[in-house]
C-alpha cells in the first residue's frame, strides 16, 4: 500500500486573518458592487500595467490565457470573492486551496505580492477614475495587505510540505524523459524520471505538476500544469499531453503542448515542480467511486483508477470516458484490461462520432452523449463519490445531471483550471 498523507496545516493560516480597520472594512464593503461591475476591465488593465512594468513576470503567467481572456476573468472573480469574505476567508476555503496550490506549483513567492498589489490598485484607480478617491484606494490597499498575508502564510506551509517529504524539492527540478508513448492521434505520454536518480515523492491521485519549457524561438519561459496520469508509488511520473490546436480563429495553437509533441524526445530534460493540486481522490475512504471524463480530462481520473485498482482492491470504481472516437481515445486497452483483471473495476466508453473501425471492434458502449438516464442505467445508485474532468461545457452538463439526481454537494468533485468560482458561476 502506498503511504500517502494529506497535510492540511496550511489551513490554519487561512483561519487566522489580520483584522481590517472597521472604517476601512466598511468602505471596502460599500465599494464591492462597483468593483465587481468593473472587475474584468480592472483586471485587464492590471495585467497590461503588470507586464509593462515587470515584463519578467511573463515567465510565470500563461500568456495564452491573457489572449483568450480567461485569466482576467479568473482574477476578477478571485479579487471579488476574497474581498467579500475578508472577515472569514475560510468560508471560501476550496477556492483558496485551488489558487494556493497553483501558486506553489508555479513558484509564486512573497516578493511577488507587493508588485501585484501596486499594479492592481493602480488599475482600480485608472478604471474608476475620480470615483476611486484616496480614501477608497487606501482602504483597498489595506484589504489587499490582509488578503495577501493570508496567501503568503498559507503558501509558505505548502512549500514546507512539498520540500520536507521524502524526495521533495523546492522550485523546479530536472527530470529526464525516460519514455515517450503515443496514446492516440492527439495524446502523447511522457514518462519522467529525476535526473539525479533520487526518490520520487508520493502524490495524491488527481494532482498535477508544472512543467517549465524554454523554446528557442520564444522570448519567455512557458509554465504549464499537466495532471499526473498514473498512480503514485512508481519510479516515474507520467503526464499525458493533448496536442492543442487553435480553439477558435485568431488564437494560436498550444505553444507548449505542440512543442512537447514535436520537439521533445526520450533523453531530453524537462524541469518540473513537485506535485500539487486540490482535485484528488479521497484515499481514506472506501466508498464507491465514479470517474467521469471527457477528452483529455481522463488524465487525473486515470491516475485515480490505477490507484484504486492496485491499492484499494475492495473499493468499487466505475470509469466513464467520453471521446469523439477511438482515434483520439487514450488508454482504451489499458482500462479494458483493468476491468477484466480487477473485479472491483467497471468501465464504459461513449463515442460521439464512432468510426467504422470502432463499430467493427466494439470499442465503445454508447454512441452519442452522456445522459442522466444512461448514468442511472449503468450505475447501481447515486451513493458514491463522483469525480469528473473535461471541457467546461461537458462538466457543466455532468454537474447538472448529478445535482438533478440528488448527489450531495460533498460527493461532487471536479478539476477546473483557471476559475475561482464553480461551474454554476461560469
TrEMBL record:
Show which residues form the site (Influences the redox potential of the prosthetic heme and FAD groups): 102, 415
Q: Which InterPro entries match?
A: FAD-bd_FR_type, FNR_nucleotide-bd, Globin, Globin-like_sf, Globin/Proto, Hmp, OxRdtase_FAD/NAD-bd, Riboflavin_synthase-like_b-brl
What does the entry comment about cofactor binding? Binds 1 FAD per subunit. Binds 1 heme b (iron(II)-protoporphyrin IX) group per subunit.
Site keyed Involved in heme-bound ligand stabilization and O-O bond activation: positions? 47
Start and end residues of each FAD-binding FR-type domain:
170-282
Which residues does NADP(+) bind?
295-300
Look up the record and name the cofactor or cofactors this protein needs. Answer: FAD; heme b
Q: Where is this region: Reductase?
A: 167-426
What is the protein name for this chain?
Flavohemoprotein
Organism, as annotated: Heyndrickxia shackletonii
Its taxonomic path starts at: Bacteria, Bacillati, Bacillota, Bacilli, Bacillales
| Gene name in the database record | hmp
